[in-house]
Amino acid sequence: xxxxxxxxxxxxxxxxxxxxxxxxxxxxxxxxxxxxxxxxxxxxxxxxxxxxxxxxxxxxxxxxxxxxxxxxxxxxxxxxxxxxxxxxxxxxxxxxxxxxxxxxxxxxxxxxxxxxxxxxxxxxxxxxxxxxxxxxxxxxxxxxxxxxxxxxxxxxxxxxxxxxxxxxxxxxxxxxxxxxxxxxxxxxxxxxxxxxxxxxxxxxxxxxxxxxxxxxxxxxxxxxxxxxxxxxxxxxxxxxxxxxxxxxxxxxxxxxxxxxx
Amino acid sequence: xxxxxxxxxxxxxxxxxxxxxxxxxxxxxxxxxxxxxxxxxxxxxxxxxxxxxxxxxxxxxxxxxxxxxxxxxxxxxxxxxxxxxxxxxxxxxxxxxxxxxxxxxxxxxxxxxxxxxxxxxxxxxxxxxxxxx
Lengths: 261, 133
What we know:
The complex is a heterodimer of chains A (about 260) and B (about 130).
Chain A: H1 16-29, H2 32-41, H3 43-51, H4 60-77, H5 86-104, H6 113-133, H7 139-146, H8 150-159, H9 168-171, H10 182-185, H11 191-195, H12 199-208, H13 211-222, H14 227-234, H15 238-256
Helix pairs in contact in A: 1-2, 3-4, 3-5, 4-5, 6-7, 6-8, 7-8, 12-15, 13-15, 14-15
Chain B: E1 4-11, H1 17-30, H2 35-56, E2 61-69, E3 72-80, H3 93-103, E4 106-112, E5 115-123
Helix pairs in contact in B: 1-2, 2-3
């Protein structure tokens, strides 16, 4: 009997292989039991993400319920053929559901359209000024270029990253990052590996990042390149590098260390 | 030339991360740092805040002491309990240290009877208008 014809045995820990088996079985047989098991397996991720919103006056149980809706949506939409870990895929969906909940309740950190537009213009200004001056522009230069205040530029920098998960399409760059794996560049005696006691957790966490995230992380923190240099090398904007870095660092905290928190 | 000191005390809760980032970014911008450098300062401020919050717990406050002098921003974060006893904040010290070292020109963890304090320093690499800036 082929493997996918048999329902995978029940296990309640995050396990990449088992997760994949369940998804395959769920897709091929529309098997509710596999779906339920996936939900149970990833409830801890929901609990962790929900806990990040717990200081906003909503009971944690309600947040877990809302986050679980996000988890179910992620399970139903997850494409197993995409080379993305389920946790990487599910996190923005769950966070999105939680944010929507607050937005519907009127407590969201609403980003005014004016700031959204300014964020877009700052992005363009950084690219234009970097090209013109051949260096990263100062905040004051960006402000003068756009005829706004420095405070508005800084606020736009904040806006641009407010849970701003770069789309999966962006991750599929054509520069060879598709296959980049940071672990191939790191040895056992690597500086970071040496610093972190729990190497397995770190390695697993790094593997969970998308190739482009790993590449940006490697270039910035291991090679010491600036954001401008990375942007030029990968053919993406400086603000995208900034977002990717921040997202990667958050993902490291949220995914890599989640089991320890 | 004299330096200025700015002290920010915020509850050790995630919702104040933006306050910390914005304060650090504003001071970095004031020193004429580039977009790249300001972003590094924001990353440093956030990482230090998350790390300190983990050490201190939600009921506590985190103290950020900024020292601003021409072209240089120094930040002291703490004091906070030294968790070398194995009771960690969930984020290994090595990891936070690695990130902070990467985005700061200088970084050290100062240990005393009061606990530990993170000391960060970032300099504006080049003043605008200088050759090769």
